[in-house]
TrEMBL record:
The lineage of its organism: Bacteria, Pseudomonadati, Pseudomonadota, Alphaproteobacteria, Rhodospirillales. This is Deoxyribodipyrimidine photolyase-related protein. Keywords: Lyase. GO terms for molecular function: lyase activity. Gene3D superfamilies: 1.25.40.80, Deoxyribodipyrimidine photolyase-related, DNA Cyclobutane Dipyrimidine Photolyase, subunit A, domain 3, HUPs. The keyword Lyase applies. SUPFAM superfamilies: Cryptochrome/photolyase FAD-binding domain (SSF48173). It comes from the Bacteria. The keyword DNA damage does not apply.
Amino acid sequence: IRSLIPVFADQLSPDLSCLRAGDPDQDHILMMEVRAEGDQVWHHRKKLVYLFSAMRHHARILRHMGWRVDYIALDDPRNSGNFTQEIGRAVNRLGPERILLTEPGEWRVKTMAQSWRDDFNIPVDMLEDDRFLCSHEEFQDWARDRKQLRMEYFYRDMRRKTGLLMKGSQPLGDRWNFDPENRKTPKEEMCFTPPAAFPPDSITREVIDLVTRHFPDRIGKIRPFRMAVERAQAEEAARQFIQTALPRFGDYQDAMLGGQPFMAHSLLSAYINTGLLEPLKLCRMAEQAYHDGHAPLNAVEGFIRQILGWREYVRGIYWLKMPEYAGLNALDAQRDLPGFYWTGDTGMSCMRTVINETMNSAYAHHIQRLMITGNFALLAGINPYQLHEWYLAVYADAFEWVEMPNTIGMSQFADDGLLGSKPYAASGNYINRMSDYCRGCLYDVKDRDGPMACPFNSLYWHFMDRHRDRLAANPRLSNVYRNWDRLEPDKQSACLSRAETVLGQLNTGGL
Ligand code: FAD
Ligand code: SF4
């Protein structure tokens, strides 16, 4: 054969660049379920089922398209369990003239693929992944000579480049960003239409059995399994989201309610990240909903900004800064990740709710990730790399290029403000305003230093106090320090002492 074409779990697009460059008559596709990748990170079992099932469905589609596909199943006795050895076996078996692939999404896997040239003495042609809307070169050009790499300016350039929500050179509605309108507090009686659900077919049921057998000790509930596993289903999920949830996406983007894990969010990230949905097409669908009068501009702009802005921007940061980015720890946070992140076994209602929902569905929406689990880790000084490993494991949409900048940068400020202009730190007051979690909590959200005071309150001030040297000069935090300095010294020390007690309880299961 001419080319061996490896296709990875996040490359499930029929028009992937390497497939466009290949020829079904002369080339051979290789897809691999390898144990080493499943062990590299302690993935949620629902995520494993999703990935393996979506891969198996994709292999079927590729075969329909006329490709020859070697599919190495996890339980194939010849499966060596790692990418490089499987490539080696395929090279021996098929004798290709070259390896042809689309750039892997993860720095580690890309480095591994680059080594195949020497490992197997064969040319390796690696093509750009043009499913993204901003290439590495474009992002480097944008970042060059800028003092600050703010997402907002990148996003405006992407709007100009794609013409999305533009009227000539001006943004529709004469504003680039409608975020201030997207912070409505939730009302308890609000009901949201559940996201699209798809019953498992025979392929998915087989994969559920496989994952149950091979990963018995892993976290996360497999059933009920309702995710889309092929393109047609993912497109149906996108249509349903635009129809039912998009109109309210903006208003309640930052809101959280117990018993409503999905609110008006799309739950499309896993499908976009694996290639079942195309980001630009999705943005155009949302834009059309605005032009049809179906969804307001604040909702549509908010949704498009997440995909065209944040998603492309964090990818740009990842490739610009790896591999050093993974080890950043600007705030020198050294505490171990508490065990309750894996079990949800804590009296803090907000943490328990989000962690339990995560273990059930391999999903949490953005504000739950940023302002509950991320915020707690930031305030408590949890090691950012350990937290990164947790996020990468527990969410079905988690791939390193998108998860890592969100965790290390946006949520933990471990990149010293490269990604965000100030840390996303908040006390219980914010959580109480944006959710109904505090009502069912063991702790008192109005109390700062008593024995049952909300842990977020004292930890918030402890965080601000211990990082004063670094943060006090930040103009966006001057009010915070003014308020702290106004507090009488005995109240300050009672608050800091309560925080020390909370930190002491972290790993004893006492929280
Ligand atoms: P919606 O709220 O419906 O948003 C629409 C789409 O916008 C998403 O599907 C996603 O593709 C994109 N998007 C939204 N916010 C972001 C963002 N900050 N960065 C990149 N894309 C974004 N997203 C991932 O896809 N994978 C991850 O592993 C991941 N890890 C995260 C870790 C932390 C600590 C934080 C704070 C955020 C993380 N995010 C991650 C970003 C965001 O939380 C998820 O994309 C979003 O919650 C997915 O749910 P949804 O599809 O319902 O999103
Ligand atoms: Fe979370 Fe504090 Fe509210 Fe409890 S009181 S739910 S710990 S914010």
